[in-house]
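README: folding subset

This subset contains proteins for which both the sequence and a predicted structure token string are available. Records are stored as plain text. Below is the entry for F-box protein At1g10780-like (395 residues), shown exactly as it appears on disk.
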Amino acid sequence: MESLPDAVVQYIFSFMNNARDVAVCNCVSKRWKDSLPYIKSLYFPRNSFDNQSGIDHPDTIVWKMISSVVKLEELVVYSPFSSIGLASWMLLVGSSLKHLELRMDNLAEYQNCIESPSKLECISTAKNLESLKLWGVLMVKSPKWDAFPKLQSLEIVGAKLEDHALTAALRACPNLKNLLLLGCEGVRSVLIELPSLEQCKLDFYGVGNYSLTLTSPKIEFLEVQGCSWISVRETACLRSLSISNNAGRVYMVDFGKLAALEFLSIRGVQWCWNAISKMLHLASEVKHLYMKVEFTGDFDNLQPFPEIDFVDFFSSHPKLQKFDIHGAMFAALCQKNSLKNVQSGFVIPCLEEVVVTVRSPLNAGQKICTLGRALMNVYQLELGIRHARIEQLSC
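--- output ---
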């Protein structure tokens, strides 16, 4: 190291980010200490100050470290901090930061949400952010954010949100390409209007009766959990779509044409049959279809799947290569009346893999009998579908 030019040493240190390592290297030699201001990233783990015995407050230690950096581009803080500490950090490096990740830890602290400045309010100083990730957020009031014109990725994990607060936060990020809301609760109606959005993952927990309206013409990847009413009209670019509701029911789906869709996953205990049939109709070009819905029926009425014409289904999905289905859908496809239109010349041109899963203990005897009859029917149709490339059938 001593024989290397200063520029090379500085380049090596620019890849260092753990705050503890930086502090240790700072004590090795004057040459190393003089090179450390050129690091680009600082990461403070959760336990950064567990054994801290000095008189300085952790907020002050973080401030001293980032103040020694010439141009900090990434800051990740998992260790506890105050809003005052965060405000002082942002005044130092807000203009140079491109990536910011914070463990807020204020879910149960309503006082921290209304104090001034709040932790969310402090973030507004970093106007050149390209990515922002927040853990444990209480957002019941609209954050006082100006626009983040360069922000392309926003991730919020574990949050209590209000509808108007989330809408205001997204409005301040007009050029987002990636949005992730994971483990969030509190909202009832989610409205997202982001013209540049390409990837979106939304995971709401609770009673599962949220509604979603998404307007993003460039959306390519969409995953939604916990919504009962979903409207996404601009879907020309959508290639991967996953809809699930583990706690509630899916009543309504409103999608535009899904001409580019290659992967579709629909999951949940209960979907209205209109929602299922509409998704199957729209996803005619899909290559991989995953279905794990146990019941249909409206409101509290749990009903089995109606019979589905075997020939019509596979003729309507000519590009289907992989089919993962729950036992309810498999039984609906393989009922006697569903198979009556199968002729000896019928082929499924692209199918390579079928996976059938029967997992629920409800009505176990009836399901076993139904599955047994279905398998017998499929076996009897072996000559009729001998050209289908079915490589795996697991039950």
